Structures are given as C-alpha cells and as structure tokens.
TrEMBL record, chain A:
Pfam family, one: MreC
Protein's name according to its UniProt entry: Cell shape-determining protein MreC
Residue ranges of coiled coil: 69-113
Species of the source: Paenibacillus tritici
Function as written in the Swiss-Prot or TrEMBL entry: Involved in formation and maintenance of cell shape.
InterPro entries given in the database record: Cell/Rod_1 (IPR042177), Cell/Rod_MreC_2 (IPR042175), MreC (IPR007221), MreC_beta-barrel_core (IPR055342)
Similarity-based family: Belongs to the MreC family.
Keywords in alphabetical order: Cell shape, Coiled coil
Entry keyword rRNA-binding: no
Domain Rod shape-determining protein MreC beta-barrel core residues, every copy: 126-282
TrEMBL record, chain B:
Keyword hit for Transmembrane helix: yes
Segments crossing the lipid bilayer: 78-96, 103-123, 135-159
Coiled coil: none
InterPro entries: Cell_shape_determining_MreD
Keyword check for Cell membrane: yes
Topology of this chain in the membrane: Multi-pass membrane protein
Family: Belongs to the MreD family.
Protein name: Rod shape-determining protein MreD
Cellular compartment(s): Cell membrane
Amino acid sequence: MFKLFNNKRLFILLITLVAFIVLMGFSLGQRKTLSWPENFVRDTTGFVQKLFYKPAGYIAGLFEDIGNLHDLAEENKRLKILAAQYARDAAQLNFIKAENEGYKKDLKFTKAQANLYNYEYHIANVVSVTTEPSNNTLVIDLGAKDGIRLNMSVTSIDGLVGVISNVSNFTSTVKLMTMLDIYDPNSQPPIAGTVFNKEDKTFGMIERYDQQTGRLIMNKIPVGDPIAKDDIIISKGTGGVYPRGMTIGTVEEVKKGEYGLTSTAIIKPAAGFQDWKELFVVFTEERVE
Amino acid sequence: MKMRRPVLILLLFLLFILEGTILPWLIPDVWEMRMIPNLVFIVILFVTVYHHRHTALIMGLCFGMLHDVVFYGRILGAHSFAMGLSAYLIGLIFQIPRAPLPLMMTVVLLGSLLEDSMLFGIFKVFNLSQEPYNWALLHHMLPTMLFHFAAGLLLYIPLRRQLELLGKETRDEEAA
C-alpha cells in the first residue's frame, strides 16, 4: 500500500521544519560577525567566483564598447565641457575648504567632529550577483581584512547601490537598495535625503523601494518644500549610516503623502542595479557608539 | 569504484558559480530582474526523477544552504528549505527512471514554479516582501520557468547519460 508518510518520516520532517524555522528566525536578526563555517564557505566560493565574473564582464563589455563606438565623439565633447567646469569648481572648492578648516580650528572641533565628513572611497570588484527580488544581493571582493564593516555604503559611478549586509574575511555581501523596506525590521535604515543645490531647504526620508514600479519612495517631506520634478536627490548624511552627498536618483513625481500632511516623492534610482563591474565602498570615520 | 558522484557534485558547484557570474552578463538587462536562473535546481530535479529523491533532498539542502550563505542578505535557510523540500516532493510523485523528455520538461516547469512559490511563501511569512502573489507570478516566476525550461532542454542529454551511469554504478555496488 502506498503510504505518504510513515511515523518515522513524519517525525524527521517535523524536526527539520522546526530546525529550519529556528535557523531562519535566528539569522533574521542583525548579526555582527559570521561563524567560521560561513566565513570559510563564503571566502572559498568567492575566490572561485572571482575567477569567472571578471573575464565574463570584459568579454561582455567588449561587445558593448563596439556597439557604443559611434556615440564616443558626442560623449567626448560633453565630457570636455564638464572637465573645464570641474577645474573652475575645484579652485573655488579649495578656497572654501581652506576657510572651513580654519573655522573648525578656531571653534576647537574635536578630531571626531573634524573627520566626520572625511570619506575614503575604496574600489571593489563584484564577484557574483543574484537578482532575486526578495533577496537581491551581490558579493564584492573586499572583506573584514580590508577594513569593511557592516552597514557601510556602496556606490557605483552613477549613485548609491546598497549597504554591506554581511562581512567575511575576504568577501562581503551587499544588500541592494531594492531591498530597502520600512516594514522589514532589519532592512537598511531609511535614508535622509535632500535635493542637490537646495540642501538647506529640503528634507525627506527615503523609506522603501517599490518592487512593482522600480522606484524609491521618499516620504515625510514637509509642507512648502521646494522639491520639484527632475531634482537630483542626494543623501543628507544625518543619522549616521549613510555618508553625506551620495547621489540617489531623480524625482519623477511629487504628490500628497499618505496622511495628507506631508508630500511623497517618487524617485527614479540613479544606479541601474544590473551589470556591475566595479563599485566603491565608502569608508567613514569609525564612530564610538 | 565511486567515480560518478564527485563528478555530479562538481558539476553542481560549477553551475552554481556560473549562475552567479556568467549568466548575469548573458541575460539581457531588461530581463535581468525577472529571470532568476537556478541551474543547480534543474540538475537536482533531474536527480530526483532519474536517480533517487533522497539524494536530491540532500543535494537541495546543501546547495540551497550554499546559496543562502554566499548571498546572505536577509535570512539563512530559505533556499535550502525550498530547494530540498520541493525536490523531495517532486521526487515523491515523479520518481520514474524511464521518464521521457516531455514528462521531464513538465517536471522542470512544475518544480521551478513550486520552488519559487515556496520561496515567496517563506519571505511572505517573515513579512519581508509586500508584493501580492499574482504580481510575483507574472513578474518573475513565469519568465524563470521559461528560462529553466530552455536550460533543462540543453542539459537533458548530458545529464541523463551521467545519471544512467551513476545508477548503473549504484546497482553494481549493491550487487557486489
């Protein structure tokens, strides 16, 4: 007779089920360090993945470059104009920087305060990606040995990509912005955002990513805020986790918020969330907590 | 004289590496967020149909855990659970060593739908995804199923040959 589950099998099944629920519940919380088997598995697979991802990227990039060849002249012209502007701005910036440093000294800033906005950008190579909507992560080849810590921000050339969610010795996992979710107790925290060129006038919290439309949602924008369509949203740097001045995206639409008291902005993310080669990890001054 | 089993495990590991590194470059950008290749799971489905469901269960648990640990974003164990259990359940129904190609392809489609739904369920239970099921079904489960179908067709002949050799070896061992 065909019997689906006999006693022994049912027992094993239940035990496994309970074990899995315990494991999932346990791993759901924020974990500071990983255990050694996890470290070992991650580092060895990371090493093998590194051998594959980069050559594949180069070959794919080669075909893309051939396709883009005819746009090059146009792009070059634009970049030249940008470069000239950049040189002028850099001179201006240096004056202001020197002035600012003088003020900081006069006002007797502590070392931690003075270094608050001193960021270092470390280049990291992507070694593998998974694009699953509910667990959209990628692995980079920098780890605890290179000084990576939890919750550091990762950006591409275009904009903020995600935060570090787990660190092993030689690799770390990056949780992409697509997993930003206010309902998830240990998602990356909401980003305090502001508008480029209106930094002191606007404020809002980027709270979640809408999977269905592929847009970031910025809430809690006060009444009378000058935020408008096509504004570039950058991070404000208050709150501690995200560094100041990361590009996040452009505003697509501003509408009334959920309760009618504040506005909500729909933001198109600047980073494309696919086909990565190099990313930058932003090293911030370690804070005493 | 165990030769085939390490080959199979190495193949699974290789496929795991490929799906994280090479496939993102091959899949067009528009489809990248919608097709989630899980080549390892296809092979596990072949194992569960042509070899034995217990082997498939163990493989699903191990390689699911590998995926979970390497791409550790939110929780551990989700893939391990989904891959192991769905491979086992599929094996319970479809373990037919002489299954022809059309049946196997049906199994691939059903299996990948079952696994994705199970994953969706797990994330829903832990309140990690807010999207409704029918959206997820159209957005990524169906494209993934089609992708798995194509990959299954490509892998069919080499895998079946390997598994037949593996079966022969196990029988020889039991006879000896």
